[in-house]
């Protein structure tokens, strides 16, 4: 079973971004320019390799130094462009081939078993398993195993559909488990092969890769939703079905939608990207039920 890392709490994510915005605003005197600096800072963070990121013991300090450097560069070279291609001397053909392989590997890694079925040669493309195995650089038996998992998952979803009322019950139970930090209850509500996705949009230090398995997803969610007094979790309509809305200091910091099959959650989608949360923070948006213990 795949293991994700511990992740980062909502509080740390929000306060880290606020700190970077304060640094950039203090240096540049412009809110819009500060936003651009912070976006570029996180782009550079995600441009690092996993090994390099893992070696940074205090990410907030690293991010602040990078943000300060970007500000200094803008102050000393105001007309310098920020674009530019990647460094390196590889030919176009080599880069294209590596990019294609990277995209395929990334998709295979990020999709759930059911979604990976779209890449199963016998089911969709009519290609032999060995051909796709060669493209993604994985052994043929592993590709076949992925296809089997996908088919089993599809059968489960078709044979055990979730009615709206049942989905609401599951979503509220998930919220209760998160609010009370009940790991045992939360694990029981998640399917064994559940997958969680965290969309930070490269603008907060959210997990870059999906987390698989009920124990791993439960641990990551409880870490994300660690709730000091200023953090609240409510159930609200998210994309037409009951989901979770997380607020920090009264502002929406995360929106979590849940895909269910029968009495279990099979997918978790956590949106942490500040750009995508702007509509949730517009004036007139319902704030949700008051208090920490309400649904």
What does this structure look like?
The protein has 295 residues and is an alpha+beta fold. It folds into three domains: 10-75, no CATH class; 103-159; 164-281, Nuclear Transport Factor 2, Chain: A (Roll), CATH 3.10.450.50. The chain has twelve helices and six strands. It has helices at residues 10-28, 31-47, 50-54, 59-76, 92-110, 113-116, 121-125, 129-136, 140-159, 164-179, 183-189, 214-224; strands at 190-199, 211-212, 231-238, 241-248, 251-261, 264-271. A six-stranded mixed sheet has the order 2-1-6-5-4-3. A hairpin with a 2-residue loop joins strand 3 and strand 4 (241-248). Helix 1 packs parallel to helix 4 (59-76). The longest helix is centred in the middle third of the chain and has 20 residues, at 140-159. The two termini are 33 Å apart. The model is unreliable at 78-127 and 290-294 (pLDDT under 50). Residues 16-75 form the RNA polymerase sigma-70 region domain. InterPro entries: ECF_Sigma-70_Domain, NTF2-like_dom_sf, RNA_pol_sigma70_r2, RNA_pol_sigma_r2.
Which key features would you list for this structure?
295 residues, six-stranded mixed beta sheet, 3 domains, alpha+beta, Nuclear Transport Factor 2, Chain: A
How would you summarize the topology of this molecule?
Elements: H1 10-28, H2 31-47, H3 50-54, H4 59-76, H5 92-110, H6 113-116, H7 121-125, H8 129-136, H9 140-159, H10 164-179, H11 183-189, E1 190-199, E2 211-212, H12 214-224, E3 231-238, E4 241-248, E5 251-261, E6 264-271
Parallel strand pairs: 1-6
Antiparallel strand pairs: 1-2, 3-4, 4-5, 5-6
Helix pairs in contact: 1-2, 1-4, 2-4, 8-9, 10-11, 11-12
């Amino acid at each position: 079973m795949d293991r994700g890392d511990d992740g980062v709490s909502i509080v740390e994510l929000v306060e880290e971004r606020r700190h970077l915005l304060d640094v950039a605003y203090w240096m540049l005197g412009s809110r819009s320019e500060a936003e651009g600096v912070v976006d570029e800072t996180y782009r550079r963070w995600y441009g690092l390799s996993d090994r390099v990121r893992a070696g940074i013991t205090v990410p907030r300090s690293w991010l602040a130094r990078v943000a300060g450097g970007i500000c200094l560069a803008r102050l000393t070279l105001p007309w310098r462009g920020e674009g530019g291609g990647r460094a390196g001397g590889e030919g176009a053909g080599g880069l294209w081939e590596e990019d294609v392989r990277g995209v395929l590997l990334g998709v295979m890694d990020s999709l759930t078993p059911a979604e990976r079925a779209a890449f199963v040669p016998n089911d969709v493309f009519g290609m032999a398993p060995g051909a796709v195995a060669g493209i993604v650089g994985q052994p043929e038996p592993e590709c076949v195993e992925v296809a089997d998992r996908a088919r089993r998952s599809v059968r489960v979803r078709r044979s055990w559909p979730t009615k709206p009322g049942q989905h609401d019950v599951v979503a509220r139970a998930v919220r209760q488990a998160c609010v009370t930090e009940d790991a045992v209850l939360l694990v029981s509500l998640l399917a064994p092969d559940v997958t969680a996705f965290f969309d930070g949009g490269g603008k907060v230090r959210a997990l870059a890769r999906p987390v698989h398995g009920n124990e791993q997803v439960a641990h990551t969610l409880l870490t994300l939703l660690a709730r000091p007094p200023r953090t609240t979790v409510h159930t609200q309509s998210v994309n037409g079905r009951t989901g979770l809305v997380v607020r920090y200091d009264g502002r929406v910091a995360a929106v979590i939608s849940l895909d269910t099959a029968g009495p279990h959650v099979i997918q978790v989608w956590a949106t942490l990207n500040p750009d995508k949360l702007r509509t949730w923070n517009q004036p007139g948006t319902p704030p949700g039920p008051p208090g920490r213990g309400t649904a």
